[in-house]
Design goal:
Layout lengths: L26 H14 L6 E5 L5 H8 L4 E6 L2 H18 L4 E5 L2 H7 L6 E6 L7 H11 L3 E12 L11 E9 L2 E8 L5
Parallel strand pairs: 1-2, 1-4, 2-3, 4-5
Antiparallel strand pairs: 5-7, 6-7
Helix pairs in contact: 2-3
Length: 192
């Protein structure tokens, strides 16, 4: 069973999505990821977007560690139900509604975003069968909604090719954890 690792809701057990269609991030990878994000000082008071949220474990971890608002985006019915349960657990512990769940396809959610929708941290853990071309399209749609200094984290199989980063977004780090690989990207600095 997964749990919230640290922060105000640390130790709370999280529900998992039943079946095998959703691949949860292991606690080992989650702990390493959030140690790095803490070092980047990107979580406190952040506006966080968790795309392909699954159970919402990455997003609720962000909320526990001080994110201001967390949006979980998931299209699978079972995963949305579990995300809502986990979000409710964290919101009750934090005593204010920090985590919101959106039952939509990632592409639909981003297409509906307005210019004022800006995120400081974006967590993406798409199903492995999602093709890199589709990911590049999602990243391209995301770029105008990244706040200055934002961090985008993409989790994939270590056997997956690195995605093609669209204009306006560049990779600055990557880390492999067994079968999992994380890529870290940030808004590109415009050439003067």
């Amino acid at each position: 069973m997964s749990r919230i690792i640290a922060g105000a809701a640390g130790g709370i057990p999280l529900f998992s999505v039943p079946g095998t269609a959703t691949r949860p991030t292991t606690d080992r990878v989650k702990e390493a990821l959030f140690s790095r994000l803490d070092a980047y000082e990107v979580i406190t008071d952040a506006r966080v977007l968790d795309l392909f949220a699954g159970s919402g474990s990455l997003g609720v971890e962000s909320a526990s560690r001080g994110a201001k608002i967390v949006d979980l985006v998931e299209s699978g019915d079972k995963a949305v139900a579990v995300s809502r349960t986990n979000a409710d657990l964290v919101n009750k512990t934090l005593k204010h509604p920090t985590v919101r769940v959106h039952h939509l396809r990632v592409e639909t959610y981003l297409d509906r975003a307005v210019p004022s929708d800006q995120w400081d941290l974006v967590l993406m853990d798409p199903p492995y069968p999602v093709e890199n071309e589709a990911l590049t399209d999602i990243l391209k749609t995301l770029v105008p909604h990244l706040a200055e200094g934002a961090v985008v984290v993409l989790e994939r199989s270590s056997r997956s090719q690195e995605p093609e980063w669209p204009a306006g977004l560049e990779r600055f780090a990557e880390k492999k954890y067994g079968e999992t690989k994380l890529w870290f990207a940030e808004p590109a600095v415009a050439a003067v």
